[in-house]
Amino acid sequence: IEETEEIMRAILKQANIGVDGRLTDFVGPVRIADTWEKVVADVVEYMDKAKESVYFATTSFDGRVAESCLRAAQRGVKLNFLTDKETISNKLQMLRMLLSEPKTLKFFFEYLSSPDFQIRFLDIPYSFIVVDQKYSMIEVTHPYTHAFSMAFLFHNEKLCERLIATFEAMWRRGQKMETPIPSTIPSICLLY
């Protein structure tokens, strides 16, 4: 518990929220995901709830999360991503494998160039997501290996506002993604 409180103090210090009492007095209900599988399940649940917007700074990839992002995009949710170039290159290769349905693949490539999808590249210090300015997740990684350690999930609009401000500050420093080259769209997609 002391280690968890110390991690939360570090996270909340950046958000200018003090921890003098119980954590829930400041940020509302908090869930801790202590395995990668739990984080994936929670992020997929958040993405499936999304109605308006998602701010996602990520250093990792999971096909189930990618599929939930596509479902959100198909519902008209505005998606904003920050990642590094190496991660996105690996993600796009894996997405190509995931998207075996030509119509879904066509939608994906069309969505890449839509104003509802924005992506920039930047070295990300930690992964986090904000959904509809209500739900958020912050991943805590091992300080030396950067391997997953745990994640905290919140339902708190004030914390979400601060995470969005952090995202926007990082966004301004990020490098824009070039428009996808039409030749990257498999010719079979053009038939649909």
From the structure above, extract its key features.
192 residues, alpha+beta, eight-stranded mixed sheet, 7 helices, 45% helix, globular
Any overview of this molecule?
This protein is an alpha+beta fold and 192 residues long. The protein has seven helices and eight strands, in the order H-H-E-H-E-H-E-H-H-E-E-E-E-H-E. It has helices at 2-14, 23-27, 36-49, 63-74, 85-98, 102-112, 157-173, and strands spanning 30-33, 53-57, 78-83, 117-121, 128-131, 135-141, 148-155, 175-176. It has an eight-stranded mixed sheet, sandwiched between helices. Helix 3 runs parallel beside helix 4 (63-74). The longest helix is centred in the C-terminal third of the chain and has 17 residues, at 157-173. The N and C termini lie far apart (54 Å).
Summarize this, please?
The chain is 45% helix and 21% strand.
Q: Compute the average pLDDT.
A: 75
Shape, principal axes of CA atoms? globular
Q: Which class of secondary structure composition applies to the elements?
A: alpha+beta
Side by side, the strands of the main sheet go: 1-7-6-5-2-3-4-8
| Stretches with pLDDT under 50, minimum 5 residues | 15-23, 180-192
- End-to-end gap: 54 Å
* Number of helical elements: 7
Q: Helix share of residues? A: 40-55%
DSSP E strands, number: 8
Radius of gyration: 17 Å
What order do the helices and strands follow?
Answer: HHEHEHEHHEEEEHE
As a percent range, the share of strand residues is: 15-25%
